[in-house]
Amino acid sequence: MDGNGRWAESRGLPRAAGHRNGVEAARGIIRCAPDLGIGTLTLYAFSADNWQRPETEVRALMWLLREYLRTATPECVENGVRLRVIGRRDRLPITLMAGIEKAEEATAAGRKLQLRVAIDYAAREAIVRAARALAGESDITRERFAAALGAVTHGGGPAPDLDLLVRSGGERRLSDFLLWEAAYAELWFSDVLWPDFKPSHLAEAVRWYHHRERRFGRVPAATTRPAAGA
Ligand code: FPP
Question: Which residues line ligand 1 (CB under 6 A)?
Answer without folding.
Answer: 1-6, 19, 22-23, 26, 43, 45-46, 50, 61, 64-65, 68, 117, 169
